[in-house]
Amino acid sequence: MYERFGLYSEGKAPHALFSVAQQNHVGAYRRRLKRAFDIAFVCVAAIPAGLVVGLFALLVFVRERAAPFYRQDRVGLNGRVFGMWKLRTMVPGADAVLESCLSADPAARAEWNKHQKLKNDPRITGLGRILRRSSLDELPQLWNVLMGDMSIVGPRPMMCNQRALYPGTEYYVMRPGITGFWQVSLRNESSFHERAGFDQAYFRELSFGTDIRVLWRTISVVLRGTGH
Fold first, then answer.
1. What are residue 179's phi and psi, to 5 degrees?
2. To bridge 8 with a disulfide, which of 12, 43, 57, 107 should be the other Cys (CB 3.0-4.6 Å)?
């Protein structure tokens, strides 16, 4: 199922196949030019993205009467924790709402344990569903890219409490990305465990051409509105 991405099934943990230390990916793009590309991309996208973020931040504030931006700790390069920014898509007290849902619904608990997300998440607001389907809630992460916490293309940012569940090592030697292999492929249909395979594949194929292809496919994903 995952062969075209160089991925592996849940029974074959990617980190067991080869060690990061054994790789010799030290090309110019990986070492220097990828960061330059990130900064250039943010500079070009800053004005249109800022206008969109400003509009939806106002809508969130007016409709939800809550702070329009949400900051959550995520794991970054070399395991360093950073604050990732998003437009708010959840109700206040979202953690308590989630725990109540998982405690009352065994099927939801099983879905969460496998995917670390819910298709019908009770925490998501009406406007939040629109933002998530279109991935517009991710636009504030351009600030994280500018600050060096993230990259435009890279592994999906991991929450701190998910580290014990993650079976790979490649994630920790790259900056997490706004988009990446996981976001433009199986996305919500894959398990959390399988994300390590996407990260391994990206680590192996990382190049300017790969990033451009991922960005091109991201446009299609956003237009189809596959997020939740």
1. -130, 170
2. 12
CA–CA gap between residue 209 and residue 30 (Å, rounded): 12
pTM: 0.81
Strand segments, DSSP code E, in 44-137 are 69-75, 81-87
Q: What are phi and psi of 116, to 5 degrees?
A: 60, 30
pLDDT of residue 174: 95
E strand or H helix that includes residue 158: strand 158-159
Both structure tokens of 213? 């292809």
Q: What is the pLDDT of residues 154-192, one digit of tens each?
A: 999 999 988 888 888 899 999 999 999 988 886 666 777
Question: CB neighbours (10 Å) of residue 212?
Answer: 12
The band of 224, judged by pLDDT with boundaries at 50, 70 and 90, is confident
Please give the Cα distance from 153 to 138 (Å, whole number).
Answer: 13
d(CA 85, CA 158): 13
